[in-house]
Amino acid sequence: MKTELLYKEMSYKIIGACMEVHKELGKGFSEIIYGDALEIEFQENNINYSREKHFNINYKNNMLPHHYYADFVINDTIVLEIKAISELTSSHVKQTLNYLAASKLRLGLL
Questions:
Q1: Which end of the chain is more exposed for a tag (fewer CB within 10 A), N or C?
Q2: What pTM does this model have?
């Protein structure tokens, strides 16, 4: 069974932008610095994005007073969470899955 990737072309563009930032800056900076650099890459590559977009969280038909803030939302379809760490953990994956649930989007890149 062949599985087709969601938003394949845009995902490759996003990952390419992330790799370019990593190539230029290397490691050791905070997430906000990598985010600033990613904004430049997105602009230079005509990638439509929102930064620190907030999503409401509903609990039993009550809107919670705090929001989830996505690092980036690309084309209103892809959540991009950036991490300035040496390796991802299962909690980062779970966090991203929760963000997808809150945003009602279908693809998250971490």
A1: N
A2: 0.87
